[in-house]
Design a protein that fits this description.
The protein has 175 residues and is mainly alpha-helical. The protein has helices spanning 3-28, 32-39, 42-58, 65-95, 108-137, 144-169.
Length: 175
């Protein structure tokens, strides 16, 4: 497996290691600020992945699906990161600390729309990174997989939008 693919795997593992460590420090050791700092490392992990991706491409590597996935990972991490951390915090408090965690009561349609809006944000961030890599490399043959990744992601985004908005157009019936 190539450098960037391993970097994505390592970054995902590090993301969850820092989140779990932050939760343990925050609640187990009652060090809220240190716990917050540990959880706030996720953007740093994204920057490391971006640097590794740029480094790999600057060495003359042909862009692969892994380079495209790195851009997607960064976009998704930035768009959904806060929500994932809040989810992990709630799960920790509920299952480890045995606290009653109140859940925000929103409709399925609104939840789906919000998820789609975050997906659009992730696409804008990741798509910008993909576009920047394509322009920076400037060689159509070298960046073909990046363009295909962007096109496929765009198709996935459209499908997500149709499904998400269908919950608004056709709301579930009351039981």
């Amino acid at each position: 497996m190539q450098l960037v693919a391993w970097a994505i795997v390592c970054c995902e593992i590090l993301f969850w290691v820092f989140i779990v460590a932050g939760l343990i420090v925050r609640y187990g050791f009652r060090r809220e600020r240190l716990g917050f700092r540990l959880m706030a490392m996720s953007p740093v992990i994204d920057i490391v992945l971006l640097v590794l991706t740029v480094f790999d491409l600057s060495r003359g590597s042909t862009a692969t699906i892994a380079h495209g996935l790195a851009a997607i990972y960064i976009g998704v991490s930035l768009a959904f990161g806060k929500q994932m951390i809040a989810w992990a915090d709630g799960m920790y408090r509920r299952f480890i600390l045995r606290e009653q965690v109140s859940r925000e009561r929103i409709s399925k349609a609104r939840k789906e729309r919000n998820g789609f809006y975050r997906h659009v944000l992730a696409f804008l961030i990741g798509g910008t990174l993909l576009g920047a890599m394509i322009l920076w490399l400037g060689d159509a043959e070298q960046t073909e997989s990046l363009l295909r990744t962007l096109q496929l992601w765009g198709l996935v985004l459209v499908i997500d939008g149709v499904i998400s908005m269908s919950y608004t157009v056709f709301p579930a019936r009351s039981k």
